[in-house]
Write a structure and sequence with these properties.
Radius of gyration: 20 Å
Structural class: alpha/beta
CATH superfamily of the largest domain: Thiolase/Chalcone synthase
Strand content: 15-25%
Helix content: 25-40%
Order of helices and strands: EEHEHEHEHEHEEEHEHEHHHEE
Bound molecules: coenzyme A
Largest sheet: 5 strands, mixed
Number of strands: 13
Number of domains: 2
CATH topology of the largest domain: Peroxisomal Thiolase, Chain A, domain 1
Number of helices: 10
Length: 352
């Protein structure tokens, strides 16, 4: 039987650390001002979200989302002892694409130096914070059917360029950070039904689509892009909007349900799973999920405290971070559950 194996893992975050203390003084260019630009503070942010700091990419025009993806991809390929030329498929999840179209996966393919190979299919997926589990489900199906043999699955986000650094945007702005995580996946021949990627589930409820969104434009209208930087109502389109309470409640419900279903459908218990890696949206969400789903506390891995929410990147980034700290090891079984804009959610069980 062909099953999907994790061949390599890698992650990348920019060097610049932005603390909660610095956030109120940053302007839209991330420049530190003498006077407060946003009324927020470390205590509010930590109490509601658990976040202490996050990373920001330079905003001098030199870095795009595909550059963050590239660094994580190079590390995952090195970990897999493979070259970029070995890849026959890239699946890239982001809500901060380099440009509107084409998708960001083709920019990454070019930066990997394999644009001329023509043997590497490129997919962009748009499942926001659920992209890792959705992408893993796609990759697993491709590999088990023999469609592709070396898949690079990447989640990358450059949030800091598209947040609103003032009171109107503060509920969203404090949550997000920049970063990327990547996995290389391939086939293995095994009779063990628990080996490799054991389980994936993906769900959606489009009635929550406008509870967390970023418009930028509306294709139904003409002009479809109606933006004026000086007009507060019109420039609102340029920034993400969120009903934080509805997102919070639905996230807890979606992650608890998908975690419990993953265990029930595979017949595994927490003794069979080494680590629970939830999407890193908010530490309070994860604490609630752990409490309601009765997940052993010593199996939970978080990075939100120092990376914030890096959306499509959080799961591989968190696993890689804790592997570098010596906690996560090759051969460990991981249960991951995610929730994101859409609403979308899901879970996966796989062996690293
Ligand atoms: N700093 C200080 N005050 C802030 C603030 C900030 N960054 N953001 C909002 N506030 C204010 C609000 O304006 C409001 O003020 P008011 O009472 O004078 O109107 C007050 O804090 C409470 O706002 P509220 O929205 O009720 O707070 P909350 O307890 O719901 O917490 C979130 C807000 C965003 C932290 C919380 O809803 C949340 O975490 N939601 C999930 C978000 C998420 O995870 N998104 C990504 C999903 S993938």
């Amino acid at each position: 039987m062909i099953r999907t194996k994790v061949l390599g893992l890698g992650s990348y975050v920019p060097d610049r650390v932005v603390t909660n203390e610095e956030i109120p003084f940053l302007d839209g260019r991330h420049v530190r001002q003498q006077t407060q630009q946003t009324e927020t503070n470390d205590q509010w942010i930590q109490q509601r979200t658990g976040i202490k700091e996050r990373r920001y990419a330079p905003n001098d025009g030199s870095v795009a989302t595909s550059d963050l993806a590239l660094e994580a991809a190079k590390r995952a390929l090195a970990d897999a002892h493979l070259q970029a030329g070995d890849l026959d498929c890239i699946i890239l999840g982001t809500l901060s694409p380099d440009i509107h179209f084409p998708g960001t996966a083709v920019f990454l393919q070019k930066k990997l130096g394999i644009a001329q190979s023509t043997n590497c299919a490129c997919f962009d997926i748009r499942q926001q914070c659920s992209a890792f589990v959705y992408g893993l489900q796609m990759a697993d199906a491709f590999i088990r059917t023999g469609m592709y043999k070396r898949i690079l699955l990447v989640g990358a986000e450059l949030h800091s360029h598209a947040l609103e650094y003032n009171n109107r945007g503060r509920d969203v702005m404090v949550l997000f950070g920049d970063g990327a995580g990547a996995m290389v996946l391939g086939p293995m021949e095994t009779d063990d039904p628990r080996a490799g990627v054991m389980y994936t589930s993906a769900h959606a409820d489009g009635s929550g689509a406008l509870d967390l969104y970023l418009k930028i434009f509306e294709i139904a209208k003409l002009p479809y892009l109606d933006y004026d930087a000086t007009d507060r109502e019109r420039n609102e389109f340029m920034y993400p909007k969120m009903d934080g309470k509805r997102v919070f409640l639905n996230a807890v419900r979606g992650m608890v349900m998908s975690t419990q279903a993953a265990l029930a459908k595979t017949g595994l218990g927490w003794d069979d799973v080494q680590w629970f890696v939830p999407h890193q949206a908010n530490l309070r969400i994860n604490e609630k999920v752990v409490e309601v789903a009765k997940i052993p506390h010593d199996k939970v891995l978080n990075t939100i405290q120092f990376y914030g929410n890096t959306t499509a990147a959080t799961v591989p980034l968190t696993i890689d971070y804790w592997r570098q700290q010596g906690k996560v090891k090759r051969g460990d079984r991981i249960l991951s559950s995610v929730f994101g804009s859409g609403f979308t959610w899901g879970a996966a069980i796989f062996t690293l």
